Amino acid sequence: MQLTQFADLGLRVVMRLAVDESDSRPSSRDIARQLSISYSHVTKVITRLSELGVVDARRGRGGGLAITELGRTASVGWITRRLEGEGEVVECEGANPCPLRSACRLRSALGVAREAFFASLDTVTAEELTAQPSRGVLLSLPEVGTPQKHSGASSAAR
After folding, report:
1. Confidence (pLDDT) at 19
2. Are 65 and 46 contacting, i.e. CB atoms less than 8 angstroms apart?
3. Which of 1, 23, 31, 138 has a 20 to 30 Å separation from 103 between CA atoms?
4. How many C-beta neighbours within 10 Å does residue 20 have?
5. For residues 144 and 45, what is the distance between their CA atoms, to the nearest angstrom?
6. What is the DSSP letter of 75?
7. Are the beta carbons of 80 and 119 closer than 8 angstroms?
8. Position 108 confidence tier, pLDDT thresholds 50, 70, 90
């Protein structure tokens, strides 16, 4: 099974915010830059995470993003279900319906597998995902406004 890009980005945003220990609240633009994600995608994900109560998003001066207690303690399975939606793994109906749909066992087998996938994620929280070594990587993301160090042949050629 593969997560949608929306769910993947949502989990990355939750992980990034879960390690933030500063008093300042990063903006959506900051998070987009740090995680190398499109700003428009990040804003959609943050809107949904805010609706779920996982992220506190405030606008204007003194605004920004912060993870909520729910965001820290909710299972990754719970968050993922809400970001993914409850759709089927396979599409049996639609414009070109599957001719096996009236007697097929694949659809139900895949549904059971999907639930097992989510159940395995129900045992993990965002805080657990951000333990070492992930924590070190998340904390080493470049601060916004900090010049990036460029490495490689370009500096050697000067």
Report:
1. 92
2. yes
3. 1
4. 17
5. 20
6. B
7. no
8. confident
* Amino acid at residue number 2: Q
Residue 24: pLDDT band with limits 50, 70, 90: confident
β-strand 55-58 against 64-67: which pairing, if any? antiparallel
Residue entry with tokens 């190398």: 36
Which two structure tokens, joined as six digits, stand for 126? 């965002």
Two tokens, residue 8:
């993947």
Q: 75 forms bridges with which residues in the sheet? A: 125
Q: Which residues pair with 55 in a beta bridge?
A: 67
Mean pLDDT over 105-109 rounds to 89
pLDDT tens readout for residues 45-94:
999 999 999 999 999 888 899 999 999 999 999 999 999 987 778 888 88
Q: How far apart are CA 62 and CA 55, in angstroms?
A: 16
> Nearest CA to 1 among 90, 124, 92, 93?
90
Query: pLDDT at position 92, please?
Result: 85
Q: How far apart are CA 154 and CA 158, in angstroms?
A: 7
